[in-house]
Amino acid sequence: MLDKRQWQSVDWLIILGLVVASTIGLLIIYSVTHAGSTPDLYQAQIARLLIGMVLLLLVMFIDYHTIVDRAEVLYLAVSGLLLYLVIFGGLRAGTSRWLELGVGTFQPGELAKIAVVLFLAKYFAGVRGDCLRASEVVTSGFFAGVPIVLIALQPDLGTAATIGVVFVSMALLAGVRAKLLLVGALFVVLLIPLAWAFVLKEYQKERVYAFLDPGRDPRGAGYQSIQSTIAVGAGGFSGKGWLAGTQSQLQFLPTPHTDFVFAVLAEEFGFVGVAAVMILYFVITLRCLDTARRARDRLGIHVVFGVLSMFAFQTLYNLAMVAGLVPIKGFPLPLMSYGGSSMLATMIGFGLIINVRLRRFVN
Length: 363
What we know:
The protein is mainly alpha-helical. The protein contains 15 helices and two strands.
């Protein structure tokens, strides 16, 4: 149980930010689905939000040292699930990322992000010295690489890239010598043509072509990007109003309640709504950085930084994707997009961050 001082250290502002962002997401989800064939999706998202808040509280109550002590168990369990999906997983929408639970589905890849953060936090916190040795970079890279490869094979390159960014961010925080950094960057550059030739599927290459030239295939690979930028531009300063966005309501914009929920926000609430949500996400990020600064040990800093790098990368990529600045990938906007696995993983992550903050005084 928490004592009085710990209760006073609970970051209620960040919890309020999570609730407000999720509520805005619910409004958008209702707006784009209430008149369609699945008008009850907002109710399912409310249930997921409530479950996510319960998980946040549960994670918050358990000392993060106790949770990290079991990081290897969680890592192995998630890796086992990912391997199971690669070998036995059935295809759904062309991928094998979903695990059937009888009452619904779940993406272990989302949980893998949390497992990698905890595993790497424990590893990097135990490293002695100001900089990682080459062997430590290779070892940590191997353990981050296993789930990355398994998730990429599903294929789910968005989640795999997120874990890659988490690894790089946490390794930089732990300290990487410039020479090793250059070698790593060169290695990644050399991998790009190989990945293009042997890893990317044809539809993924088409998305890259469509990003470079949206007019190349306006009714195919370039359709989502074109419709998204039209929706963003149509919102103007104050938007067309809730339930009144033509791009989303008339079904011109594909998947408006998932990856392109921010485009709907821009169309219906305009620049004012976009600015308000971006400020909200910025405040949440600042509170996370403040928690990292106040953490009582290196383990807490690594946990907060790992979760924050995951949250920030997904958010920035989604916003850039909606604006047509990067190729389209399956990147939900954290807290706002429809989807249970992403919501639960995000809430567990923020439960860890709040956990670190409220235990900063404990000896």
